[in-house]
Amino acid sequence: MFATFNAPADFTFSTFNAPVDFDGTVFNDSANFAGSTFNYSGDLNGPDTFKQIITSDEKTCDLFRKFYKNEARYDDADNIYYDYQKFAQDNNDLSLFLLSDFLSWITCGYGVRLSHTIGCIVGILVVFSFLYWGASRFYRLLDASEKKSKVSRLEPILISIRAFTTLGSADWYSKNYLFRILVAVEGLLGWIMLGIFMATLTNLLMRS
Asked: What does the domain layout of the chain look like in residue ranges?
């Protein structure tokens, strides 16, 4: 109790056969509990502050998360879960699971990082804006006679936003099939990312 660790604390493969009390403990660096066993899991008292708690198994991760959720410290609980998933991803040798973990990390931070989702959405909009700008034969419908002209510099951004949100627009079109494919792909990504955004937001709002 009331200890301060200014360097990484290594508890790997430790066995705790009595109640664990980190009340007042401060970890200014990482605390590694990978492979540790808590035989009195119901009596865990977590540290007051920590930079990173590393766990390599789901049971230990859930043990710390449960304590911090009971204390209404939801950000700390989310940080432990995020670090656990990232640690598992970095040490996963199976390519299929590695791809799945990577997609989960980059799109929503394993369901606890809304900033990842927002970053992905902004990234998709920017990338597709450049793709639209670089594609050939962009046209904008000017009037009922279907006269056409090249789009302005702002148009690719507007097209990207409309395609992503699947709102569409009646004032632009292109005979370029590559352009149409890009719009369809971005619309599909838009549905997926907006769904992930709502799921992640709901998870964060309902965690209490």
From this structure: 4-91, 114-206
Tokens at 21, concatenated: 């009390």
Return the beta strands (E) in 25-88 as ranges.
26-32, 37-38, 49-54
Looking at the predicted structure, is the pLDDT value of residue 173 above 70? no
Mean per-residue pLDDT, 7-20: 89
* Other CB atoms within 10 A of residue 12 CB: 11
- pTM of the full predicted structure? 0.79
Specify the 3-state DSSP secondary structure of 170: coil
Q: What is the C-alpha separation between 85 and 94, in angstroms, rounded?
A: 15
pLDDT digits (tens, 9 = 90+) for 109-133: 999 999 999 999 999 999 998 888 8
The third-level CATH classification (topology) of the domain covering 114-206 is Helix Hairpins (1.10.287)
- 66 touches 43 (CB < 8 A): no
Which residue shows structure tokens 């605390």? 31
